[in-house]
TrEMBL record:
Residues 389-540 form the Helicase C-terminal domain. PROSITE patterns: HELICASE_ATP_BIND_1, HELICASE_CTER, Q_MOTIF. This is RNA helicase. It comes from the Eukaryota. Residues 135-163 form the DEAD-box RNA helicase Q domain. The gene is LOC113691576. It comes from Coffea arabica (Arabian coffee).
Length: 635
């Protein structure tokens, strides 16, 4: 069962749940709010997409169940109203997150996304005959079912990437799209796919055309019981696949479009059963998909729409062979016949070049600067010796709790073992936490995310498995306990906060071993109008331009993220690509890990200039004060 599928069930939550590891610790008390009713009503009972307050306002008054699930009825795959029949107003999507058990710091009392925050984002386009952008959803010829669902989600207007990408995708063009974390890329590829499938369905229903039940119209082949989806969405992690699946189901609610998910770590037989009920859109992780294809349970021969979310990760070393196999060697129609859409917040130049293998006459879009982070996230970098990190973290968490509330805090560490160790230590110290990483069984991963999402366990210690794509409402603070080696990973990690136009806070613990990242970090922070601690600037002198210390995950980890379209300037396929950075330095030449800097003081080096700051100055004022003392463990 996918982790967020369980959120559908109306199982009651114990009113004073304590994680098992905390049950015998008298020092830790969970704050049971007296404001339970206030908390629920404040969210309007129809929280909408993953708790961001996008209930279906208007229509019948909702009466949400006391669960943090969405109603199974709302998301039935066996919808009785196929192919875009007239839809009567329905109750809201009941997918509000519940924070009834804890008082959490809520950055969003209104519950409404602040998409206007992206209004000033510049969008760069390249390619031939780029379809013009729209300014509203009503300008786009969606089917009425999808339009109703967009309203239900309370998406009042499109984000910049949606304004540009949706018309391109609706015109059937291939697309490489880059936009900041949390700015609505999922809808940008889901809306066109759903619309175009509905149009396909209409054509197939027409009396002049005969449905080829062996795969001519999506669904599955009767002869072979082989699922033949019309659209394939690939994502790098199980959790992200589940999330996209939930989103796509929400968008295709009552349209008749069937969305199925396939991912590893969960029983394959159940997933086969889901596929046998019919599938138009298959959301999958590459490994499980290859397995299913090799067992002849899925055929890609009918795929007309292919989307790669986190496309740079999918084409990175870890996934590229599998993705190449899926796209080029498993019967999928070739580029030019199918439509291909690649989306990510980061697109290193070399990955852009590689990606063009999968595309035909594509349009490139960049909302904001490629690989940049949003200035909605206030970024702090603090120098902390490795030996002091745990205490430093504890102090930050204590400071956050100073007003009696918990902030949802995501703590990134480098290793799985490190995640477990830090989580146990935090629990021992009385901080309700769970860990998520690749060595956990899927049920544990799901439980950890669910518990974090709900606010029951407001601290999640994670490896990069949680770095990309996850849209968890109300994450107030991302702490890079261990900085990643790759600046792209940093962008994705901090992007778990400051989403959908809301402000967020990210704190990084920097030590000498992170020196290779300094230059890229400084550039990124400058682009996002963050104030750079002077001591960090000094590290850049020995830090590689745009680089990182080399990454386990990225063969192109040193390639500049802050660039643009690799076709820029040439705007054609004949560009002479040398194996170089834009500044002319060769790939893979990283600086020494050692650093001459050993006696800096981070005190008082805190940014004040980003637009997220006014929020955080008030919200985390206690933390700002705190930061003036916590990083003082210097020689
Ligand atoms: N037009 C819109 N109006 C209001 N909210 C929106 C709109 N589009 C998307 N959202 C919401 O914004 C949030 C972030 O969207 P999404 O997860 O698609 O971002 P993303 O760009 O894919 O992020 P990431 O790069 O981290 O994967 C979601 O909660 C989504 O429901």
């Amino acid at each position: 069962m996918p982790w967020n599928e369980s959120t559908r069930s109306p199982r009651p939550i114990p009113s004073a749940y304590l994680p098992p590891h905390l049950r015998h610790q008298p020092t830790f008390t969970v704050t049971i709010p007296t404001s339970l009713a206030r908390s629920s009503s404040r969210r309007g009972g129809g929280g909408g997409g993953r708790g961001r307050g996008r209930g279906f306002r208007g229509g019948r008054a909702p009466n949400p169940p006391r669960s943090y699930g969405r109603s199974r009825r709302n998301f039935s795959d066996d919808d009785p109203n196929p192919y875009n029949q007239k839809i009567m107003p329905e109750p809201p999507f009941d997918i509000s997150e519940k924070f009834d058990e804890l008082e959490v710091i809520d950055d969003d009392p209104s519950g409404v996304n602040n998409i206007n925050a992206y209004d000033e984002t510049p969008v760069e386009t390249s390619g031939f005959d780029v379809p013009p952008p729209v300014t509203s959803f009503s300008e786009i010829d969606f089917c009425s079912g999808l339009s109703d669902n967009i309203k239900r989600c309370q998406f009042v207007k499109p984000t910049p990437i949606q304004r540009y990408a949706i018309p391109v995708a609706m015109a059937g063009r291939d697309l490489m799209a880059c936009a900041q974390t949390g700015s609505g890329k999922t809808a940008a590829f889901c809306f066109p796919i759903i619309t175009r499938i509905l149009r396909d369905h209409h054509q197939l229903k027409s009396p002049t055309k005969k449905i080829d039940r062996n795969g001519g119209g999506g669904g599955f082949s009767l002869k072979t019981i082989m699922a033949c989806p019309l659209a394939l969405i690939l994502a790098p992690t199980r959790e992200l696949s589940c999330q996209i699946h939930e989103e796509a189901k929400k968008f295709s609610y009552k349209t008749g479009v069937k969305v199925v998910v396939a991912y590893g770590g969960a029983p394959i037989v159940q997933q086969f059963r889901n596929l046998e009920k019919g599938v138009d859109i298959l959301v999958a992780t590459p490994g499980r998909l290859v397995d299913m294809i090799e067992r002849a349970k899925v055929s890609l021969k009918n795929v007309k729409y292919l989307a790669l979310d986190e496309a740079d990760r999918m084409l990175d070393m870890g996934f590229e062979p599998q993705v190449r196999k899926i796209v080029q060697q498993m019967e999928m129609p070739p580029a030019g016949v199918r439509q291909t859409m690649l989306f990510s917040a980061t697109f290193p130049i070399e990955i852009q070049r590689l990606a063009s293998d999968f595309l035909s006459n594509y349009i490139f879009l960049a909302a904001g600067k490629v690989g940049s982070s949003t200035d909605l996230i206030a970024q702090r970098v603090e120098y902390v010796h490795d030996a002091d990190k745990k205490n430093h973290l504890l102090n930050l968490l204590r400071a956050q709790r100073a007003n009696g509330k918990h902030a949802l805090t995501l703590v990134f560490v480098e290793t799985k073992k490190g995640a477990d160790a830090l989580q146990s230590w935090l629990s021992m110290k009385g901080f309700p936490s769970m860990a998520i990483h690749g060595d956990k069984v899927q049920m544990e991963r799901e439980r950890a995310l669910k518990s974090f999402r709900s606010g029951l366990t407001p601290i999640l210690v994670a490896t990069d498995v949680a770095a990309r794509g996850l849209d968890i409402p109300h994450v107030a603070h991302v702490i890079n306990f261990d900085l990643p080696r790759d600046i792209g990973d940093y962008v994705h990690r901090i992007g778990r906060t400051g989403r959908a136009g809301k402000p967020g806070l990210a704190t990084a613990f920097f030590s000498d071993k992170n020196a290779p990242l300094a230059k890229a970090l400084v550039e990124l922070m400058q682009e996002a109008n963050q104030e750079i601690p002077p001591w960090l600037n000094e590290y850049t002198e020995t830090s590689h331009a745009y680089g990182s210390g080399g990454s386990r995950s990225s063969r192109f980890s040193g390639v500049k993220f802050g660039g643009h379209n690799y076709r820029r300037g040439a705007d054609n396929e004949n560009y002479d690509y040398s194996n170089q950075f834009e500044d002319g330095t060769a790939l893979e030449s990283y600086p020494s890990q050692s650093s001459p800097y050993s006696s800096h003081d981070s005190r008082a080096d805190f940014p004040t200039s980003s637009r997220a700051d006014s929020f955080h100055e008030g919200f985390y004022g206690h933390m700002l004060d705190h930061r003036t003392v916590v990083a003082s463990g210097w020689d």
